[in-house]
Amino acid sequence: MVVLVSIARVAATNLEDEDEGGVAAIIGAVIDNSSRIGKEKTVAIKMALEDFYHSQNNTNQSFVLHLMNSHGDPPQAALAARDLIDKQKVQAIIGPQTWEETSVVANVCSENSIPVLSLADATPNWATDKWHFLVQASQSQFLQMKAVSAIVQSWEWYQVNIIYEDTESLSTGILAHLSQALAEAGVGISNLLAIPPFASSSLSHDLMKLKEGQCRVFVVHLSFPLALHLFETAKKLNMMEKDYVWITTDPFTGLVHSLNASTLSSMKGIVGVKSYFSQLGHQYEDFYVKFRRRYSSENPNEFDNEPGIFAAQAYDAAWTLALAMNKTNKKGGQVLLDKILLSNFSGLSGKIQFTNYRLDPAKTFKIINVMGQTYGELGFWSDGQGFSRTIGPDATYSSSMKVLGPVFWPGGPWDSPRGWTLPTIDKPLRIGVPLESTLKQFVNIIQDECDNTTSFQGFAVQLFKETAELLPYHLPYKFYTFNGTYDDLVKQIYYKNFDAVVGDVTIVSYRYEYAEFTQPYTDPGVVMIVPVRVKGGQRGWLFLKPFTRTMWVLIGLMIIYNGFVLWMLERNHFPDLKGSMLNQTGTMCWLSFITFLSLHGDRLHSNLSRMTMVVWLFAGLIITQTYTANLASMLTVEKLEPTTDDVDQLRKGNAIVGCDRGSFLKNYLYEVLHFQPTNIRQISSEEEYAEALRNKEIAAAFLEVPVAKIFLAKYCKEFIQAGPMYKIGGFAFAFPRESPLTATVNKALIKAFENGKVLDLENKMLVSEQCENTNTDEDDTASLGPNSFWALFTLTGTTSTIALLVYVFRKNHSNLL
């Protein structure tokens, strides 16, 4: 249907030639006049052209407006655009609300070089490149998605459900921006529910599936009628009750003002984000009064006649077009397009200024809250600044929505919802546990066929129980066995067969595609275990090892010194101590060394000599006995070493190596350490590892650190850790990606470390195997140095010196007499 509107003094016929002046500018509009948005736009566009004609901006320019009702159907919108161009000879078209309609209108207009001012809620970035005459005349809603994300982040919700209209604009535009904004805030998407443009009978079924999940936060981006149907259905399903969160966006929130009290009462607790435009000033007051009067006149059956953001945007788009046409003295769509893009003025909806064919996006949005039979405005959110109660230079901002004050939530009044539901006794948390664990100390599943019962034991199981006790809420759960690889076990979370996984499950990057993990509760790392062998090498000079080199030098010096003292004291009594200097020196050393080993008191004539040699012999006895004991220890202790500590040597030698069955290590050995798949053997138990290493079926075993510790504690005399440690892995609990449980369980696990629960469990359950007579390294029987004998050397040296001094004193005294 074509509506021909003659504005002011303009007639639809007998248009004069443009060059002669006084010719009316012909404008087309494609509107869905069956919708509230379309009705507001129709009134606003008419008002804008009338107001412009009577304003001081007009230079006697008149307008003719042709309205076409698209009924929200893209093909009909395309036909309407074609009719406006071919029959009505319009110079420009103000486009419809949806992107689907706008895209077909833009295609028709670009073919005919007719500018089209789009009022779509979302226009893809590529659209203005494809259609050169398309201008985005409404502010983009993409930034609004960041406001939604900020609300979710404010209340520390980690997952949301997104309900959106299954249209091209949503799937390619709004949804992508919303997903990105949530991801940047660390919020995951639990479920996506796409609703067709015309509500289907399956909506109740779809909502029930969402209700069965844990997530209770819903972000709704739907057209106005579809959103009304959604909330009506949610109310019937008791999904507008306590612990539920509903966050809405434009176009629904932008029309909340049009709802009656009874409809609003069924939506209590909804938090909405809507486009903000200033409602202050003479310009808006004049628009507000005239709009209400005219809207009531043209739509007498409508409940509310207040204008919203869509009316303001349509008014500004029509004013922009009128202003461009008023200043255009030349024919041609390109000239008109250029004038439109140069627009720069303050409109009702904000600053009208175009960049790259787009109206500069709004950066401030209003936050509303439905409370009973009405709604209130909580405050604002501004991009780059955050939440505030007011707008202006004196406004204070916060990154949290909580600064806006109390919120009326569904089932209210003011308690903040958790945003997710806990498992119940009737529906406990389903926890998968690996049936075939390599180490029974970590996971030990005992199945009693007589009683048809299964018990779950082990360090990992007990640690989870202790952690669950530290949670701030009661967590019902039930363990289930899983017979398969650890990768398949983690995937069961993704497939929603399990709600969590407990066991000796390693943190591996590719497993994050299916689940996320708590912090590790064991040391990360993978090590190589190999058999030991007796260490070979030169042992011919082992007799020197009991003492250090310094010790040997000191013993030699003390022998020479004591020999010199004896020579001085006994040289007048022994003929052998006389003669040539060489003879005396040799005799002196021999005497000192002999007395170091035994005392011949009957051969010594001086009491000073006897005193010196008694102390020296005492020191000698201790030194020789210590030497004998240390040498015996070195001769009898076996020196052990790994058979190999070189991974490259194993790989080049085509050696067979072992790893846990079903673990990530097989891929790691192949992809990172470059062992051939045929040379990798998977093993199921520590006993099988020991047998394979003893029988040389494998040359080495690659084990994770906690497994290696327990294995070596049991087989310490046969096997040893060799080579480097590879810093990967660590055991942890697994949960669904972005699960709200992960953060709270992780916090409780950290508390278990801090209060000593983990240490107690480790001492009780993991330190059961003790290694006795552990083989020592060669350095464990260390050479002894002077530090161990300084008192003896001091005693004998002092005694010898005193004896020498007494002898010298007596000698000098007798000579004086």
Quick synopsis:
The chain is α/β, with parallel strands linked by helices. It folds into 5 domains: 2-140 and 294-359, 3-Layer(aba) Sandwich (Rossmann fold), CATH 3.40.50.2300; 144-280 and 362-404, 3-Layer(aba) Sandwich (Rossmann fold); 429-522 and 734-763, D-Maltodextrin-Binding Protein, domain 2, CATH 3.40.190; 528-533 and 640-729, D-Maltodextrin-Binding Protein, domain 2; 542-637 and 787-816, no CATH class. The relative contact order is 0.08.
Structural class: alpha/beta
Q: What is the overall pLDDT average?
A: 84
Distance between the termini: 153 Å
CATH class of the largest domain: Alpha Beta
For CATH, the homologous superfamily of the largest domain is named as: Response regulator
Helical segment count: 24
User: What is the second-level CATH architecture of the largest domain?
Assistant: 3-Layer(aba) Sandwich
Count of extended strands: 30
- Contiguous low-pLDDT stretches (5 residues minimum) are 1-21, 773-780
Q: State the helicity in percent bands.
A: 25-40%
Overview of the molecule:
The termini are far apart. By secondary structure, this protein is α/β, with parallel strands linked by helices. Mean pLDDT is about 85; it is low at about 1-20 and about 775-780. It has an 8-stranded mixed β-sheet with strand order 8-7-9-10-11-15-16-17, sandwiched between helices. The protein has a 6-stranded mixed β-sheet with strand order 1-3-2-4-5-6, sandwiched between helices. Strands 24, 25, 26, 27, 28 and 29 form a 6-stranded mixed β-sheet that branches. It is elongated, with a radius of gyration of 46 Å. It has 24 helices and 30 strands. Helix 15 (about 550-570) runs antiparallel to helix 17. It folds into 5 domains: about 1-140 and about 295-360, Rossmann fold; about 145-280 and about 360-405, Rossmann fold; about 430-520 and about 735-765, D-Maltodextrin-Binding Protein, domain 2, CATH 3.40.190.10; about 530-535 and about 640-730, D-Maltodextrin-Binding Protein, domain 2; about 540-635 and about 785-815, no CATH class. Helix 8 links the parallel strand 9 and strand 10. Helix content is about 40%, strand content about 20%.
